[in-house]
TrEMBL record, chain A:
<protein>
    <submittedName>
        <fullName>Sarcosine oxidase subunit gamma</fullName>
    </submittedName>
</protein>
<dbReference type="GO" id="GO:1901053">
    <property type="term" value="P:sarcosine catabolic process"/>
</dbReference>
<dbReference type="InterPro" id="IPR006280">
    <property type="entry name" value="SoxG_het"/>
</dbReference>
<dbReference type="InterPro" id="IPR027266">
    <property type="entry name" value="TrmE/GcvT-like"/>
</dbReference>
<dbReference type="Pfam" id="PF04268">
    <property type="entry name" value="SoxG"/>
</dbReference>
<dbReference type="GO" id="GO:0008115">
    <property type="term" value="F:sarcosine oxidase activity"/>
</dbReference>
<dbReference type="InterPro" id="IPR007375">
    <property type="entry name" value="SoxG"/>
</dbReference>
UniProtKB/TrEMBL annotation, chain B:
<dbReference type="InterPro" id="IPR013977">
    <property type="entry name" value="GcvT_C"/>
</dbReference>
<feature type="domain" description="Aminomethyltransferase C-terminal">
    <location>
        <begin position="906"/>
        <end position="991"/>
    </location>
</feature>
<feature type="domain" description="FAD/NAD(P)-binding">
    <location>
        <begin position="177"/>
        <end position="441"/>
    </location>
</feature>
<dbReference type="Pfam" id="PF17806">
    <property type="entry name" value="SO_alpha_A3"/>
</dbReference>
<dbReference type="GO" id="GO:0005829">
    <property type="term" value="C:cytosol"/>
</dbReference>
<dbReference type="InterPro" id="IPR023753">
    <property type="entry name" value="FAD/NAD-binding_dom"/>
</dbReference>
<dbReference type="InterPro" id="IPR041854">
    <property type="entry name" value="BFD-like_2Fe2S-bd_dom_sf"/>
</dbReference>
Automatic annotation (TrEMBL), chain C:
<dbReference type="InterPro" id="IPR006279">
    <property type="entry name" value="SoxD"/>
</dbReference>
<dbReference type="GO" id="GO:0008115">
    <property type="term" value="F:sarcosine oxidase activity"/>
</dbReference>
<protein>
    <submittedName>
        <fullName>Sarcosine oxidase subunit delta</fullName>
    </submittedName>
</protein>
<dbReference type="Pfam" id="PF04267">
    <property type="entry name" value="SoxD"/>
</dbReference>
<dbReference type="InterPro" id="IPR038561">
    <property type="entry name" value="SoxD_sf"/>
</dbReference>
<dbReference type="GO" id="GO:0046653">
    <property type="term" value="P:tetrahydrofolate metabolic process"/>
</dbReference>
């Protein structure tokens, strides 16, 4: 198996950075899941699609826009009407999903190489993300598991809250390095750790 | 030495610690908490700057954001920050400040001679003087251009620097239930009430210290000094998790849907910002409801000499004494049209000043005011006015005369009173700027002689002095009510309101704005607009307040007329013989106070500008590529060898492709997954040619038009499965095409079952072309044959290279036998390296965009330079792609008269006949005449040196197109001084039959 | 300005792209009625008041939305997915060209 090359390689600097006088505000990392797959239902087929996702992933997606669930090895969340992002630590998940997706339900699109998964966690995660997106990141407005699609200038992002103070960002691969550097820049004032 | 530090007051400053700073090179000391204004006053400095037009000496008028006079320039290294009000500038160790608009020095200024020419420099001076003579060398605007240099040096405010601002700026977004703007008694109560309901609250205060007027008031709240009550309240708020306190934060804009913009000055008050700490932070705040508790600005009175250093607003004087422990003078005279200033006089006396006189325009004052006047011990001059100030750059006395407030008439002989400070109060104007931005025009109130806020059109609630409720008791109760209402609470107050002990002094003023007598009386201090200028504007016919403003520039300086708008309007109203509300007021616009451009540009600037990098980016850099920026993408231009020019490099690379093989990174091409049972039908509708007939495992070149029939984009689309297509677009148009397709699916054909996904970043793409390309693939691809049978032209195969799954399509942009190899982006560099390794024995070279451009020009392939939004399929000789069997986007409009006309610009090739390079953008003409470059036949879209032909060639869009093949013409490029003969030829320069790519 | 996307909720206008007058009705694909095509491609209503517009939530779920917006106050009174709003009939649309 040939390794997937991280787009962050030359700018990946493990350790603590910025102003850490009052501790580490956020931890930044690249989660490098094996599979990032978009599944999309035709109008009216959403329920069947959610059932199919459950069959394969055992993740029970809640109803409603942006609804999602996250476990240690898998995650799924709504990104657009009838569209979901499915993330799995193992490679080849697109093929598994394609196997159960019939043409009358919807489509499967493999984005494993096309999106870079960045994780920001820690007490200042909401604060740092607020510098990028005009989104209310507070817990009541953005509960654990749920997802949103937003944009920071030209950088499109799909974001899932995977913990009380943890967010996973799926960024177009070509923008990942730029965005990573901007993320580090914005985290400097609260101190950050790359791991 | 008039002003000085006193032993009383000064809660804001830390007397135990000293701070050293310089002003105009001279060292001074102050304390933490001091502003530049308070620190300089404490050092006895009263002269802060020179005025805009007349270079008059100016001191400090106010103690806050409304300051029109005391503007200074802060130097940080080589960075100059001009026009900072000294009243807002917090001092720190090493602060370096210089005064503005003076030459050679502040105390001796040559430009002050401008005062002598005062009559000449009145309103409209520039318009009138610089129209210029009708004839002669300086006719029209030339006279202005001649004088401009001198005027620009003499007039104006601070000078900006030339060095790049190295400070860091940020922006952020905030959401809350209640935003409270202003933290005086009203704002504090509102924040407290809203916070107690559990709602998310943001409290923004433009000063470093919360508490507003409570910080300098001599009143008591709940039995304690108002300032103590304020600090206790803020301490309580600070403990709450649902409250965010934003000091040094000016809310400057109120926009649609309750969106507010604020500027937080995060580290201006520090010598060095902490690591990662921005200088300014721009807050975009979206609250559910807003409480506007922005207070009121005191107004000056307009009288001759009202700008002399030593003249100060009454409230400001009280504030300097109470907050900073600085007395602005020893012998203080008071001039007022309301009771408010009497309280100030008492407070200043208590602080140790001598009140020499209280001059009031009113003959009758309230009993409370009368009693206060007597207890100050100063001479009480009711029914009098100040008619002049005495002294040079420092006040030494005032002249007073008997005044009739009803008629404005002066009588009796003027007499002098010695004073080193004159405090003035002309009434108070509620700070309604944000409300006015968010809504309609304000309402005039006769009692207060002021504009009150309009009815809300957005979700805000006003409280306190903002509403014209100037007493502290009213501020507390209105603040509490506003806070509860904003939080959605409907019950009455949870607890009793604090008690206030305050003198019974009313600040409602007499309707007197100006003392009219000889001498310059300033309305707008910062722009040097006098009362006479306003009347001159009226005499010259500028009767609308909007015109008045523009003609005199009243209220258009950096302070936006905070102290001058109402007096200016009142003087205009008097000139017009109309009541003030009939003259109207100009609406307030954002920003409320100056905003740094850096904070608005923030993360979009410099290194933080987003870039798009291909999967092989680092390899390109390591291998000596010179990079181009193409939109946000970075792409190799050439892989130059040492000593090579750009031209030598691309010629070498292009030659290698034609002779052996070359490889180019094409990962930037837009790629869209078009999936679903109706995908083929959808493509038939959006492309001019058929895609439903395309076999699985084959690709086809497609052309897309806009609805108006012009060409939009081109590219190949690959059929990977029955319902699964991979569309490629040009790099530049990827986003536009995606949006175009999404629009049609959502809005026009929602019944089609098609999903579109951007997969540009999913795939790394390498195009390998040249006579040896197939052999190179054969050497490294496993799992599939790559011969003609397995991979005919436009055929797609799946295989592996170095253990990685790849998808290969045989298609050619270079005109050679060529293949595009796609693999997962994360494997891009791995596959790229494997291809180069396999190609080594065959002479494979990497090539950049310059060589790519050369190869495509030789082949006559079009790109964005020809698909410029004005060309049709026929113009580009792509008529063969316009299907007649089906309608498609653009088919109905593409045959319109103008789009099929004979004289349209059409694609041709051109060859330089003088063996010199051609320039893109150069024109094609029939007769070369450098003196009269006219009658363009068209223009060159792309040009290069063609190694295959050994000539300088280009593509051009030329009238008549094909009919000119073989004819001679000229290129005319006056901008680059390039004129010369060319031959017009077919755009297919090289291998027109395509033998090489079909091989 | 905020637009409430039926999927994503209220979002800042900077996440959206204006995609044109929502009152236009596209002629049948095979139509040869030049007048109708001309009107569809070039004519735009320029309403001072309640207007029907198409916006794309390009910085979000990417859906096209049919938005009713008052051009004088920027108040958005209704938002629906454009695909659900269906084709707007041309009754609000001027049949002929020319400036108004």
């Amino acid at each position: 198996m040939v390794d997937v090359l991280s787009p962050l390689k030359p700018v990946w600097k493990p350790g603590t950075h910025g102003n850490t006088t009052s501790g580490v505000g956020v931890v930044l990392t690249e989660t490098q899941p094996g599979s990032i797959v978009q599944v999309a239902a035709w109008p009216g087929q959403e329920k069947k699609l959610i059932a199919a996702i459950k069959t394969v992933t055992r993740l029970a997606l809640p109803d409603g826009a942006g609804g999602g669930v996250a476990s240690d090895s898998k995650a799924a969340f709504g990104i657009a009407p009838g569209k979901f992002l499915i993330v799995d630590q193992n490679e080849g998940f697109a093929a598994i999903l394609s196997g159960i997706m019939t043409a009358d339900i919807g489509t499967v699109t493999d984005l494993s190489h096309g999106r870079t998964a960045l994780r920001i966690s820690g007490p200042k995660a909401e604060w740092v993300l607020s510098k990028f997106f005009a989104i209310d990141f507070s817990l009541p407005a953005f509960p654990v598991g749920s997802g949103i699609s937003s944009v920071h200038h030209d950088v499109f992002a799909q974001i899932q809250r995977s913990g009380a103070d943890q967010f996973d960002l799926y960024i177009f691969r070509s923008f990942a390095r730029s965005f990573w550097m901007a993320l580090g820049h914005a985290s400097e004032e609260v101190g950050y750790e790359v791991s | 030495m008039s002003p000085r530090r006193i032993d009383t007051g000064g809660r804001r400053v830390d007397r135990d610690r000293g701070i050293r700073f310089t002003f105009d090179g001279k060292p001074y000391s102050g304390h933490p908490g001091d502003t530049l204004a308070s620190a300089l006053l404490a050092n006895g400095v009263t002269l802060f700057g020179r005025s805009f037009k007349y270079h008059r000496p100016r001191g400090v008028l106010t103690a806050g954001v409304d300051e029109p006079n005391a503007l200074v320039t802060v130097l940080k290294g080589n960075i100059r920050e001009p026009n900072i009000p000294a009243t807002q500038l917090e001092i720190y160790d090493g602060l370096t400040v210089v005064s503005q608009n003076r030459f050679p020095s502040l105390s001796f200024d040559i430009g002050a001679a401008n005062q002598l020419g005062g009559k000449l420099l009145g309103a409209g001076f520039y318009y009138k003087t610089f129209m210029g003579p009708v004839v002669g060398p300086l006719k029209g605007t030339r006279f202005w251009m001649f004088c401009e240099y001198f005027i620009r040096r003499a007039a104006g405010l601070g000078r900006a620097g030339y060095d790049k601002d190295s400070a860091r700026y940020e922006r952020t977004n905030a959401f809350c239930d209640v935003l409270v703007v202003g933290s005086g008694p009203a704002g504090l109560m509102a924040a407290k009430a809203a916070a107690q309901s559990g709602k998310r609250v943001i409290l923004a205060e433009l000063e470093p210290r919360f508490g507003g007027s409570a910080n300098w008031s001599s009143e008591t709240i709940d039995g304690m000094p108002a300032a103590d009550w304020a600090q206790a309240t803020i301490a309580e708020l600070r403990e709450r998790k649902n409250v965010r306190l934003l000091p040094r934060t000016t809310v400057w804009g109120y926009y649609d849907d309750n969106m507010l913009a604020a500027l937080e000055r995060v580290s201006d008050h520090k010598r060095d910002a902490a690591k990662g700490e921005p200088r300014h932070r721009y807050w975009s705040i979206r609250p559910g409801a807003v409480v506007l508790a922005t207070g009121a600005f005191e107004r000056p009175l307009v009288f001759p000499g009202n700008d002399r250093p030593g003249v100060m607003l009454a409230g400001a004087a009280e504030r300097y004494a109470a907050e900073f422990g600085v007395l602005p003078g020893r012998k203080i005279a008071v001039f007022a049209n309301n009771d408010g200033a009497y309280g100030t006089a008492l407070a200043l006396k208590k602080s140790g000043a001598e009140i020499v006189a209280i001059v009031d325009v009113r003959r009758q004052v309230s009993e409370a005011a009368h009693a206060a006047a007597l207890s100050t011990g100063g001479e009480f001059l009711a029914g009098h006015a100040v008619v002049a100030t005495e002294g040079g750059t420092k006040l030494s006395g005032v002249k007073v005369q008997i005044f009739d407030a009803a008629t404005g008439a002066l009588s009796g002989d003027p007499r002098s009173i010695d004073a080193d400070c004159l405090i003035v109060s002309g009434g108070w104007s509620p700070v309604i700027h944000l409300a006015s931005q968010a809504g309609v025009s304000p309402q005039w109130d006769d009692d207060r002689q002021a504009f009150l806020p309009p009815k809300p059109t957005q979700n805000w609630i006003g409280a306190g002095a903002f509403n014209g409720s100037f007493s502290t008791a009213a501020a507390l109760s209105e603040g509490d009510a506003a806070g509860r209402q904003a939080a959605g609470e409907t019950d009455g107050p949870a607890e009793e309101l604090p008690n206030v002990d305050a003198p019974a002094l009313q600040s409602n003023p007499a309707p007197v704005f100006e003392i009219r007598t000889s001498g310059k009386a300033f309305v707008d201090y910062q722009h040097d607009v006098t009362a006479e200028d306003v009347r001159l504007a009226h005499r010259e016919g500028f009767v609308s307040v909007e015109h008045l403003k523009r003609y005199t520039t009243l209220g258009m300086a950096t302070d936006q007329g905070k102290t001058s708008n109402v007096p200016g309007l009142a003087i205009m109203a008097e000139a017009l013989g109309k009541p003030i509300p009939d003259v109207g007021t100009t609406r307030f616009r954002a920003p409320f106070a100056p905003v740094s451009i850096g904070s608005l540009a923030a993360e979009r600037y410099g290194d933080l500008k987003p870039e798009r990098l291909t999967p092989m980016h680092d390899w390109h850099i390591e291998h000596g590529a010179t990079m181009y920026s193409a939109g946000l993408w970075y792409r190799p231009m050439i892989y130059g060898h040492s000593g090579e020019t750009i031209e030598q490099a691309y010629v070498r690379e292009a030659k290698a492709v034609r002779e052996k093989a070359g490889i180019v990174d094409v990962s930037t091409l837009g790629k869209i997954a078009v999936q679903g049972p109706d995908a083929a039908e959808f493509l038939d509708r959006v492309y001019t040619n058929m895609f439903s007939t395309l076999a699985v495992g084959k690709a086809r070149y497609g052309l897309m038009l806009r609805e108006d029939g012009f060409v939009m984009d081109d590219g190949t689309t690959w059929r990977l499965g029955e319902n699964d297509f991979l569309m490629t677009t040009t790099t530049a148009n990827a986003g536009k095409v995606m949006q175009h397709l999404e629009y049609f699916l959502d809005v026009v054909w929602p019944d089609l079952k098609v999903h579109l996904t951007s997969v540009t970043d999913q795939w790394a793409g390498a195009a390998i072309g040249g006579p040896k390309a197939r052999e190179i693939l054969a050497a490294c691809v496993t799992g599939t044959a790559v011969d003609n049978e397995a991979m005919p032209f436009m055929g797609i195969v799946h295989g592996e290279i170095a253990g990685v799954a790849v998808m290969i399509c045989r298609l050619s942009f270079s005109g050679e036998m060529a293949f595009e190899v796609y693999c997962g982006a994360g494997h891009g560099t791995h596959v790229w390296k494997a291809l180069l390794e396999a190609g080594k024995p065959f002479g494979l070279v990497p090539y950049g965009l310059e060589a790519l451009g050369t190869l495509r020009i030789e082949k006559g392939h079009v790109t964005g330079a020809e698909i410029d939004g004005r060309t049709t399929g026929r113009d580009l000789h792509l008529d063969w792609m316009l299907s007649k069997k089906k309608p498609f986007i653009g088919s109905a409009m593409m045959d319109r008269e103008g789009m099929t006309a004979e004289d349209r610009l059409q694609l041709v090739g051109i060859v330089s006949l003088d063996n010199r390079p051609l320039n893109g953008g150069g024109h094609i003409v029939e007769q070369a005449n450098p003196e009269d470059p006219a009658n363009s036949l068209g223009h060159i879209t792309a040009a290069c040196y063609s190694p295959a032909l050994g000539k300088f060639i280009g593509l051009a869009l030329v009238k008549g197109g094909k009919s000119r093949h073989g004819k001679r013409a000229f290129t005319s490029d006056p901008l680059r001084n390039r004129f010369g003969p060319v031959e017009i030829v077919s755009h297919h320069f090289f291998d027109p039959e395509g033998k090489r790519m079909h091989g | 300005m905020l637009i409430t996307c039926p999927y994503c909720g209220p979002r800042d206008v900077s996440e959206y792209t204006y995609q044109g007058d929502g009152n236009r009705a596209r002629p049948d694909a095979g139509s040869t009625d030049n007048q109708a095509w001309n009107s569809y491609v070039y004519d735009r209503l320029n309403i001072a008041g309640e207007h029907h517009e198409i916006w794309q939530h390009s910085g979000g779920c990417r859906a096209h939305l049919a938005v009713s917006r008052n051009t004088l106050t920027h108040k958005v009174s209704a938002v629906a997915f454009a695909r659900d709003a269906g084709h707007r009939k041309s009754d609000r649309h001027r049949k002929s060209g020319g400036a108004a």
